[in-house]
């Protein structure tokens, strides 16, 4: 099973996980959140994230999801990416997280592709939608 780590500003990751838990009816396993606050040292986050990545990797890799490209959480994560082992998606939304949680037995690259498609497909202008 692919591990999942949410690294976001404030409580965004925790809120998304709480919503996903409500939808699924149970708290999913092998997932955790790290909240990046502006008053902490970036170095301490790297150490915390590295430790969490080791805990979450059960052999199939870890999908890290972040809220916004170019912001502090993503900038920290850029240094931690390991192709085919630790992959990072930015712009997380609830449909992406649900896709990841319900298809975690897929290979990491397939899971990433499916999450990206789901995230993009779920952004809809209701005025233009039937």
Structure, described:
This protein is α/β, with parallel strands linked by helices and 130 residues long. The chain is built from 5 helices and 4 strands. The chain has helices at 12-24, 42-56, 72-78, 94-102, 108-121, and strands at residues 3-9, 31-36, 62-66, 86-90. The chain has a 4-stranded parallel β-sheet with strand order 2-1-3-4, with helices on both faces. It is globular, with a radius of gyration of 14 Å. The protein starts with a strand and ends in a 9-residue tail after the last helix.
Total of DSSP H or I helical runs spanning 4+ residues: 5
In terms of quaternary structure, the protein is: single chain
Rg calc:
14 Å
- The tally of strands reads 4
- Major sheet description: 4 strands, parallel
Shape: globular
Mean pLDDT: 92
Features:
130 residues, alpha/beta, 4-stranded parallel beta sheet
Short description:
With 130 residues, the protein is α/β, with parallel strands linked by helices. It has 5 helices and 4 strands; from the N terminus they run E-H-E-H-E-H-E-H-H. Helix 1 crosses helix 4 and helix 4 (94-102) runs antiparallel to helix 5 (108-121).
Question: Would you spell out the secondary-structure blueprint of this structure?
Answer:
Blueprint: E1 3-9, H1 12-24, E2 31-36, H2 42-56, E3 62-66, H3 72-78, E4 86-90, H4 94-102, H5 108-121
Parallel strand pairs: 1-2, 1-3, 3-4
């Amino acid at each position: 099973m692919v591990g999942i780590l949410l690294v976001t500003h404030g409580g965004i990751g925790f809120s998304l996980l709480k919503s996903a838990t409500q939808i699924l009816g149970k708290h999913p396993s092998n997932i955790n959140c790290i909240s990046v606050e502006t008053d902490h040292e970036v170095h301490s986050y790297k150490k915390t994230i590295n430790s969490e990545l080791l805990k979450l990797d059960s052999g199939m890799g870890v999908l890290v999801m972040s809220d916004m490209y170019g912001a502090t959480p993503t900038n920290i994560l850029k240094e931690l990416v390991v192709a085919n082992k630790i992959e990072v998606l930015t712009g997380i939304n609830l449909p992406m997280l649900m896709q990841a949680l319900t298809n975690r037995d897929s290979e990491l690259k397939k899971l990433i592709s499916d999450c990206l498609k789901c995230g993009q497909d779920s952004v809809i202008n209701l005025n233009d939608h039937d």
